[in-house]
Specification:
Helix content: 40-55%
Structural class: alpha+beta
Shape: elongated
Radius of gyration: 24 Å
Strand content: 5-15%
Order of helices and strands: HEHHEEHEHEEEEEHHHHH
Number of strands: 9
Distance between the termini: 95 Å
CATH topology of the largest domain: Beta Polymerase, domain 2
Number of helices: 10
């Protein structure tokens, strides 16, 4: 009687599947993945996939405990606890299906303005989100209901796609959210180095898009205080014209 042949291990338990999947990701220059993606491409069961990820230790971390969106760490990133935020923020928000942009002092820092070092990455989105902490990296979220009206740009020559508010929109946001970032004095301190790089036409388009008279008035006052008379005059003219149309 012929002995039955040995059955192969079920595909849902193949060892090393998650590790090979992650190596393939890194080979493509990617540092993010979702559990669903691993399940589809690796042929693992949900339980087996989670167990394999647990055994990878510090090489993989979740963005949030209840979210199955993962980051891949290289050895040099182990101390930080995550890859640089700019490498994965866009992919994370695409996975969430929510709009976002790098904002406020973090946006100013992208434009070369760093009055004081900040320890968090400030992100604007359309719904409240809890602050994220991944090792030494922290993300603080701000809410803007009409986020789609804010002029944004893409960071040039970045490792991955990254959306950031324009200089003009950054100035207005710094005023609007001043109470949460250290007060109006600190907001003005961040705005001042941006002023020589502002474009008059872009300012007017941004003011119209944002449609926030109180913030616009404070912006005009800051421009006047820093003696940017041409820009202050343009904003003052905009305010008087907008007032006649209300």
């Amino acid at each position: 009687m012929q002995k039955p042949s040995k059955r192969p291990s079920p595909p849902t338990r193949r060892r090393g599947t998650a590790a090979h999947f992650i190596e393939d990701k890194l080979g493509l220059g990617l540092v993010t993945f979702t559990l669903e993606e691993l399940l589809q491409k690796g042929g693992l069961s949900r339980t087996a996939a989670r167990n394999q990820l647990l055994h990878l230790g510090w090489k993989v971390t979740r963005v949030a405990p209840r979210q199955e969106f993962f980051l891949i760490l290289s050895p040099e990133q182990r101390a930080l606890g995550a890859p640089p935020v700019a490498w994965w923020l866009d992919a994370y928000f695409r996975w969430l299906g929510r709009p976002y942009y790098v904002a406020l002092q973090s946006a100013a820092a992208e434009y070369g303005v760093m009055p004081q070092a900040i320890q968090v990455v400030q992100v604007m989105t359309d719904k409240p989100r809890r602050e994220l902490a991944l090792g030494r990296i922290r993300l603080q979220f701000f809410v803007k209901k009409r986020i789609d009206r804010t002029p944004v740009d893409s960071v040039q020559n970045a490792y991955a796609a990254l959306i950031i508010s324009t200089r003009e929109a950054t100035c207005l946001d710094l005023i609007r959210y001043a109470a949460r970032i250290g007060g109006m004095e600190r907001a003005a301190e961040t705005i001042r180095p941006l002023l020589p790089h502002l474009d008059r036409r872009k300012i007017l388009r941004t003011l119209a898009a944002e449609d926030d008279p109180k913030t616009t008035q404070r912006f005009e006052q800051i421009l006047a205080a820093f003696r940017h008379r041409t820009l202050a005059s343009a904003v003052r003219h905009y305010l008087s014209h907008a007032g006649r149309n209300t």
